[in-house]
Amino acid sequence: MHLVIMEDNLEILKKLIINDSNISGFDKFKEIDEKDFLSKIKSNVPIKKLKNFFCTLEEQELVQRGSIKKIEEHFTERSLKLPVKERVNPIEWISAKYKAVHLLKKLRNLNIIEGSDKEFARHFSNNGKELSITNYTRKATDKLDQIEEIFDIHFK
Amino acid sequence: MKNSEKIKYIDLRDAAENLALSQHHLVRELLKLGSMIWIRFDDISSRMVKIVPPRSHQKFIDYRINPGDIHCLTLDSSKRIERMLEKSELVFEGLRLGIDFGGYL
């Protein structure tokens, strides 16, 4: 029997090591900052189903083309904390921000995916910036029919 | 495990060498990150282990571990590994695995 670790974790630790040959042992590590570690979002539905959902979001020009290829990098069905690789870019939302806020909150409320506002903000972007869904209230003028119809197709 | 989510593993010893760290230091940092420690079983023989059932159930359930299988240790057992590595006294007996088996672990 051998003890093993996930290769992805090795990559994260490499980033945390201070490159100074005079330092050894525990002092070799920088304090672990939450910025250094981003876990994949837990999906409670099969990844294939989530991919189909994002395929429709792409077709409807709500997320950037090619987002579907990133699904497995951002989501997992596993309960373990799995790190997102460093080079993986967030999923870019290209439509109105309020639609993204509604969509992510609804995905969470329906228990389709799990995660905090802070985590979602790092997995999704809007105009190249983190997509914050915190403190965002729904307005009477928000047009959410398109999002609701997409939910009906995939999760009803 | 889903094929699309195939995870790659590396021996703890090789990883520690790669980072120029002791295995103990490496395990401690991994636990701080909330990462799991895993066991890769040998490629020759299969083993039977007992699944610990919920309290309401009486019987333990036998579970076969196939040659080459990889299973994660529970957090308690991972911490035990850290303490054993600190003392350079690694013993696998009595360690618990987190095996997802019909709702049991």
Descriptors:
heterodimer; A: 156 residues; three-stranded mixed sheet; 6 helices; B: 105 residues; alpha+beta; 28% helix
Describe this structure in a few short sentences:
Chain A is of the alpha/beta class. Chain A is built from six helices and seven strands, in the order E-H-E-H-H-E-E-H-E-H-E-E-H. In chain A, a hairpin with a 2-residue loop joins strand 6 (124-126) and strand 7.
Describe the structure.
- The complex is a heterodimer of chains A (156) and B (105).
- By secondary structure, chain A is an alpha/beta fold.
- Chain A has one domain.
- Helix content of chain A is 37%, strand content 13%.
- Chain A contains 6 helices and 7 strands, in the order βαβααββαβαββα.
- In chain A, the strands form 2 sheets. Chain A has a 3-stranded mixed beta sheet.
- In chain A, strand 6 and strand 7 form a beta hairpin.
- The longest helix of chain A has 13 residues.
- Chain A is globular, with a radius of gyration of 18 Å.
- Chain B has 105 residues and is an alpha+beta fold.
- Chain B has one domain.
- Helices cover 28% and strands 21% of the residues of chain B.
- Chain B is built from 3 helices and 6 strands, in the order E-H-H-E-E-E-E-H-E.
- In chain B, the strands form 2 sheets. Chain B has a 3-stranded antiparallel beta sheet. Chain B has a two-stranded antiparallel sheet with strand order 3-4.
- The longest helix of chain B is centred in the C-terminal third of the chain and has 12 residues.
- Classes of the chains: A alpha/beta (156), B alpha+beta (105).
- At the A-B interface, strand 1 and helix 1 of A face strand 1, helix 1, helix 2 and strand 2 of B.
